[in-house]
Amino acid sequence: MAHWLVKSEPDAFSWQQQVENKVEPWTGVRNHMAKNNLKAMRKGDLAFFYHSNIGKEVVGIVQVVREAYPDPTIEPGEKGDWVCVDMKAVKPLKTPVTLAQLKADPAFAELALIRQSRLSVMAITEEFWVAICALGGVKG
Predict the structure, then answer these.
(1) Which CATH architecture has domain 3-136?
(2) Fewest beta carbons less than 10 Å away: which of 28, 34, 62, 100?
(3) Mean pLDDT on 106-118
């Protein structure tokens, strides 16, 4: 099983909405590296749900329940083979883990969230997964 981090602006789509909707397609990704990460996701993989722009914190864990398929939000005439995956909420972190907290700890210097801060879908190593889960008060 692989681990990921997916970002959403909470005023556009929040953790609470994910929980309420149960299963939700992760749409709107328009970056080729992020798209390739979506294509690499497999059913059962887990991802951190990260609130970007407002909050800037890891707030929950979601699970891939449907692998990559064409993104239904593609506009007519839009170029690109954009995809989405379906995610379901697994559990919230007991304590959100902030970007500032991660940046302040040198152990996270190589974390993709720090190195490639604008990327909306990124792989998370097992080491970072366990460490962030521990900071968030949940079992990794």
Answers:
(1) Roll (3.10)
(2) 100
(3) 93
At residue 20, the 3 state secondary structure works out as helix
pLDDT tens digits, one per residue of 33-79:
999 999 999 999 999 999 999 999 999 999 999 999 999 999 999 99
Which token pair is 28?
Answer: 């709107």
AA letter at 116: Q
pTM of the complete model beyond 0.70: yes
What lies within 8 Å, CB to CB, of 29 at 6+ separation is 35, 38, 71, 82, 83, 84, 120, 121
Query: Which uninterrupted H or E stretch holds 113?
Result: helix 112-115
Sign of CA dihedral 23, 28, 13, 133: positive
